[in-house]
Amino acid sequence: MRWVKVMGFSKLEFDQLQETLYHEQLENGLNVYVLPKKGFNKTYATFSTKYGSIDNHFVNLDGQTVKVPDGIAHFLEHKLFEEEQGDVFDQFSRYGAQANAFTSFNMTSYLFSCTDHVHQNLITLLDFVQNPYFTDQSVEKEKGIIEQEIRMYQDNPDWRVYFGLIQAMYHRLPVKIDIAGTVESIYQINKELLYTCYYTFYHPSNMLLFVVGAVNPEEILELVRENQAKKNFPAAPEIKRFFEDEPPTVKEKKYTVDLNVDTPKILLGYKENRIGLQDQAMLKQELATEILLDMIVGPTSDLYEQLMEEGLIDDSFSCDYNVEKQYGFSMIGGTSKEPEALLERIKNVFSQASQHGLDEEEFERIRKQKIGHFLKALNSPEFIATQFTRYKFNHINLFDVVPVLESIRFEDISNRLAEHVREDAFAACIVH
Amino acid sequence: MKEANQGMFLFQRRKAIFLNRQEKGMFIVRNEYTRKNECQKGDTGMQDEFKSTTVNQIPVHYISTPKYKTNFIAIYIRQPLKEEDHTQVALLPYVLKRGTAHHPTAKSIERAFNDLYGAMFTVDVMKRGEEQVLVFRLQLANEKFLSAQEPLFEKGIQLLSEILLQPRLENGVFLDRHVELEKDLLARKLSQIKDDKIRYAGKRCVEEMFKEEPYRLFAYGDAEQLEQISPESLYTYYQKSLTSHPVDVFVVGDVPEQKIEDIMAKYLSWPRQANNEPSPTSLGRAVTEIRQVIEKTKISQGKLHIGCRTQTIYADDDYVPLLVFNGLFGGFSHSKLFRNVRERESLAYYISSSIESHKGFMMIMSGIDFKHFNKTVTIIQDQLDQVKKGQITDEELNQTKAMLINQIKESNDQPFQLMERMYHGIVGGKMRSGNQLMDQINKVRKEDVVKVADKIQIDTIYFLTSNEVGEGDGLFETRV
Fold this sequence. Notes:
The complex is a heterodimer. Chain A is an alpha+beta fold. In chain A, 42% of the residues lie in helices and 21% in strands. The longest helix of chain A is centred in the middle third of the chain and has 19 residues, at 136-154. Chain A starts with a strand and ends with a strand. Chain B is an alpha+beta fold. Chain B is built from 15 helices and 14 strands. Chain B has helices at 12-17, 86-96, 106-115, 152-165, 176-191, 197-209, 231-244, 257-267, 319-331, 336-344, 373-388, 394-411, 415-428, 434-443, 446-454; strands at 27-29, 51-55, 58-64, 70-80, 120-128, 131-141, 169-170, 173-174, 247-253, 291-297, 302-309, 348-356, 361-368, 457-466. At the A-B interface, helix 1, helix 2, strand 10, helix 4 and helix 5 of A face strand 1, helix 3, strand 6, helix 5 and helix 10 of B.
């Protein structure tokens, strides 16, 4: 990897991956990244703010501390698509672009993909996100739509078990709040609250634009520079978010949801105690924990094979690890006719591993697998843009994944096992 | 996370709400129109065109390109969709994944793929009209991006060949234990469908609508038939399928043409007899009366599925106007259904239509409040009538064409989608290159859309509602 400084922007070359990344931070603070992809037809762009469902308690631009209703970041994401002249989707459709947006715990992204009229579509993206237009009437109208969205998720057992586990783990941290809020909370949202959130979190200095695909990077940078120079953004104070202290222990060991399903769903995992990390330290923790979980319960583990043989799991069984600055947790599970028995087996295998140690050969195999999967993911513009942004908001560089994977040693995994797998951090959720 | 899909309604939604290892964490999307839509299907663009050759009587379609960081391989085997066979077809690929002569367990196969830098091998069963298709897909890292140089392409194909041609046997048939395990897993998968309400409603709508036709059969089989399947019957069926059903092989990646042919000849040659093409899909009956099916369960949102007959299939000249029709009716976020049902009336979060290319089937689907059943169905019918009456603006027509053309071009970057597209041409009996398709889309006039819309009839209205809704509450009066 090497840096080349060219006029105003910088070029970062990753020789082994044969990729070149262009970067510039504009005067208003916006970070712009462009990754040209040779031979591709498609261009994919995301415009993201480091603002998600957990940012519900903060200092607004008037210096007052405010607490906003659950689901407002997601509501704002819906409403930004409406402009005085009508719906932004019409403009994108005219130029053959598919537009969308998503909200997570930590970020909100607006995006499009297209194969023609990239410049026009990019201008539409920048302009609609930077031009909030809310009326009482349009805010009211959206409530019916979002209510149906919430109800759709309520009928989904996979979603319910996912949230159920987080709710079992967390006492106070707003990660326990459903991203879309509740049918009750969204009815408290009004246009004034939306503007408050917008102006606090949508300043260019809190945002990142990523463009990947069939583009000339210098033209894109010039276009964005020009577009941004035309707009005025008052200097933004540093964003102050508040999070209540979260105890290291889980709220409930076991949480159950009654949904009348044919086959129960179970997720269980450990609440991360080593939080507050950023940068390479966080990336290393994320990758090492993923390797750890795959070694113990992944598809090539002895346990996986036994559980499959005994009919306790099916191919929905999987494991994952999520870590952000304020929180982290592992999640293991799937569909099982005997969730209680499965729970005991998984707890056992972790305590066995803690007592007897891990298999170094399996470690090497999983590490190889992860490198291969990362290369596969680099074929996907969606993956590159979304994951790059999420990592950058945590001061991590996506293209460090391979070198960090190569640097992880067997001892790192054993250390992770000792740190992460603790009895008082264990929780489970079962949907019946 | 693997998904058992019914084939045509692949939603990004599922990706969004599952724990996804690539896109970390959970997020929810604004709308569901980024789905893989049937109406993308066509052929390939000029830069990304398959070449075809035959190795040992098996057609091999390939693109040799440095564009990707991985290589892509897929094998498709066509089966007629039959009541008596469809469950064992659904079971087959999973039994094959259980063990080979050299890798006797699923775990050892997984490990062998992991050793090839996490090669990804997946199997799938899908419905294409009244055919059932087995698909084996393999994606391998390109060794030029790795510090350690290993011939991954060749080793990957060798392993794939082992899975297909040297399955683990016992007394000359599949291992009894493996068949039993997979029967149990399939039985569970089938009974869990009712836990995914949208999917369940879609499946039920198809079953009701095609009661009298093979298209009613579910790609993943029928739980009641599992009992009759034995290692012998399954192995006999597999041998017949391997030697006489149509097979197609696809390869996309940074591999020279000669090497593709050599490796195919070396690893993927087996004795072939006849090439028994399944009989063509029947178009089905004309609708005389709209059927309405109301079902109740514990649920917090009603799932509305409306099945329509388009009387138009892939080989027809007005297939392309049908694509345009679907786009402006319910295929995109500028469509009539999205604008009216969601944006104007706030009745739904998701509302869309999608077409199936080989049976002449279109599905409209939405999630709505129980009490809005009548209102929603009326709006949907009115919107369909409007298109039939020619109430289409130039803006709508142009937006739809731009969106369709964009989808075709975008999918030229996705090898497995390119393969799917070409395969539609193979099954549909008419090849359309990406450029031809785009050309034809550009030429579609309003009259063509009206003409194809005029053939479309609502057949079955299916509504999955809450068991707390009383009898007679808001039931719909059908009108023909």
